[in-house]
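[retry 2/3] Ribose transport system substrate-binding protein: previous attempt timed out, resubmitting with same input.
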Amino acid sequence: MNKQDNNKSTIDMEKHNEKHKRVLRDKLFVWMTVVFGVALGLIIISSIVFFKQRIRKTEEFLSKDKINTYDKYYVMIANNMEEDIRNSIYESALKTAKENDAYVDLLGSNLDEEYRVEDLLKMAINMGVDGIILEGDNTEEVNELAKEANERNIPIVTICEDIADEENRKSYIGINKYELGREYGKQLCEYVAENKLNNCDVRVIFNETQMNSQDAIISGINSRIKDDQKDSIIKIESKIIENIVEYLAEEQINDMFIPHVENGKDGSGFKLPDVVVCLTEKNTICAYQAVVNSTNTDKVKVLGYYITPEIKEAISYNNIMSTVLIDTEEVGYDAVEALTELYLAGNVSDIYSVGTKTVTRENLATFDMEGVVVEEESK
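[retry 2/3] Ribose transport system substrate-binding protein: success.
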């Protein structure tokens, strides 16, 4: 009997010890969870405070002296735009602004770190600038910030690309996308006629940020080829590529010229486009390089956008068929004129349509690297 009592006591003691250990483990887990949660919260709060301090310092740096020196202080935000085009537009805008007792800052160009378009818009709104020149973006956050700026009486004019809700901006300055499509359609029709083609597969490359323009451009192309009765010969296909990370865009364009397994083991299902239409400078260069690297220069032609030394050389060798130029000087001028007119007259035109020029091998010598007609400059 004593032995049984001893065994029972031992078992009870073991159960008690096990229960005690379990309670300690549970308490330790709770404390670790609390400590981790507090640490995570402190990290998040510190990050928010740091970011707000950076924003405030940036705003102070950007607004220093300039607001007091000129009657109006505008900012230009164009993060998704190619550098050559952005700089050309900005130089024209700044020159026009100074002629109207105003100043334009290229927001984000002299900062230590890179900010999103949304962050730069927040800065501009918090700074209380007199106007914003914005390369449009189709994201919901940009649209909401444009709405906030409008409610705070900060006018926005969009350039080159528009925003989703046009009510939140005062004016759009850029190419008429439908007419741009018709110009590319004209080039396609001429190419088909000159080469007596019975079939021409065309791939039009759009960046994700150009989604607002896609329908108008494709509609313009189809309209022109139908007018020339080439719609049974020319077949249009759109290709959307990711351009948030530059190398992804290059990879996706390169893939257009490389047979893959899904095309058949022998590549028999793979079909090269006859013409690739590019709507940005970078995509033009990427497509041209991909065609050259795949040794398909005799099979695929490129219709491009804007002009650089590399694009100009490719046109001279007939590897790029032609390229369309936007009048960047006119964009910058009209953007500031729209803001000036808004303050002087209280209203402004909803759209400022900017002209284009088409550069081919035949007229190539008359254009310099900024797309300016040399012959006109010398007059």
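[retry 2/3] Ribose transport system substrate-binding protein: The CA atoms of residues 254 and 293 lie 9 Å apart.
[retry 2/3] clearing retry counter.
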